[in-house]
């Protein structure tokens, strides 16, 4: 049961909470297999997207008994993440005014064995041709390493590129691999890619964000709605659509996605049927990068702003 289905979550587009819930129900057969077993962080907008939303990880209080959850240790305690494994849980999510579901790259029962490696392209400027060029460069390098990749729109500014894994590697190993892929992309295309965390250091380059592969890190789930005007979807697309300019980051919306699924099906379904081993790709990467290059990339991706100095108070 959806409470207050008339509440407008996207006022400019006249999209209500009821319509959001109806969307999630309509795409559940495609969405749930990609989300099942993954801890979820909810991006909630109780007053709609024109007001500030918030992120929620813990559902240890107030959640219904039917909602599956997983307890994940953290410093000074633990977090009880929701698991969206069925339609009832998915509709509960919508009823919480959760517009976007952010998920881990691993699933229960082994959260330290990712079944996805995820690359997030975050552009510094609005240049679609350049963004497509970057996505195709990622695909080409992964193919060179013997890995098939799949792409989806972020529903925001960029693209997410995923490789299905066999679950034999730890989160740390997958993160190191993804980071090295990013370093090699920067080495080969320094005018196009960066791993600089600081926006002030990126210039016009595209951030190849590999931090989505860290333990507890998340990415917008396939088929989730984004909290932007028009209710764009983070939608799987084909490489051919990307190449011919038919799949921009916000091309697909809450009101067009069901018809698209009826037409093309779940383009990310291959990610559900087994994944790659990383050992061969890891070995190849080590021949293409020096330890110094990997260290330099690590320094760039972990750089943080200097803490602000407090103004000195004069004695009075």
Key traits:
316 residues; alpha+beta; DNA primase, PRIM domain; six-stranded mixed sheet; four-stranded antiparallel sheet; 8 helices; 14 strands; 31% helix
What can you tell me about this protein's structure?
The chain is of the alpha+beta class and 316 residues long. The chain has a domain at 116-217 and 274-301: DNA primase, PRIM domain (Alpha-Beta Complex). It is built from eight helices and 14 strands. The chain has helices spanning 17-35, 87-95, 128-144, 171-188, 239-243, 257-264, 279-288, 291-301, and strands at residues 8-10, 15-16, 40-44, 54-56, 68-74, 77-83, 98-103, 116-122, 150-153, 159-164, 193-194, 206-209, 219-220, 236-237. Strands 11-12-8-10-9-14 form a six-stranded mixed sheet. The protein has a four-stranded antiparallel sheet with strand order 4-3-7-13. It has a two-stranded antiparallel sheet with strand order 1-2. Helix 1 crosses helix 2 and helix 4 (171-188) crosses helix 8 (291-301). The longest helix is centred in the first third of the chain and has 19 residues, at 17-35. The chain is globular and about 55 Å long.
């Amino acid at each position: 049961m959806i409470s207050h289905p008339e509440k407008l979550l996207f006022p400019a587009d006249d999209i209500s909470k009821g319509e959001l819930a109806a969307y999630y129900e309509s795409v559940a057969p495609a969405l749930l297999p990609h989300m099942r077993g993954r801890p979820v962080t909810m991006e909630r907008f109780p007053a709609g997207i024109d007001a500030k939303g918030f992120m929620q990880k813990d559902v240890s209080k107030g959640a219904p008994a039917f909602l599956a959850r997983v307890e994940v240790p953290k410093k000074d305690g633990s977090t009880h993440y929701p698991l969206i494994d069925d339609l009832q849980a998915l509709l509960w999510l919508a009823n919480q005014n959760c517009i976007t579901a952010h998920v881990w790259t691993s699933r229960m029962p082994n959260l330290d064995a990712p079944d996805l490696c995820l690359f997030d392209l975050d552009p510094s400027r609005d240049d679609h041709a350049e963004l497509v060029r970057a996505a195709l460069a990622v695909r080409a390098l992964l193919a060179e390493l013997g890995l098939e990749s799949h792409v989806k729109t972020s529903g925001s500014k960029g693209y997410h590129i995923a490789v299905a894994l066999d679950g034999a590697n730890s989160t740390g190993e997958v993160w190191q691999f993804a980071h090295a892929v990013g370093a090699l992309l920067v080495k080969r295309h320094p005018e196009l890619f960066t791993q600089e965390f600081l926006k002030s250091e990126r210039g016009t380059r595209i951030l190849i964000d590999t931090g989505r592969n860290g333990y507890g890190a998340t990415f917008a789930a396939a088929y989730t709605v984004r909290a932007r005007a028009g209710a764009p979807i983070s939608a799987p697309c084909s490489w051919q659509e990307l190449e011919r300019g038919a799949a921009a980051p916000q091309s697909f919306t809450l009101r067009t996605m069901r018809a698209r699924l009826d037409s093309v099906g779940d383009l990310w379904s291959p990610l559900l049927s087994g994944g790659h081993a990383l050992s061969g790709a890891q070995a190849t990467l080590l021949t293409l990068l020096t330890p110094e290059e990997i260290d330099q990339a690590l320094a760039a991706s972990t750089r943080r702003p200097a803490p602000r100095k407090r103004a000195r108070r004069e004695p009075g």
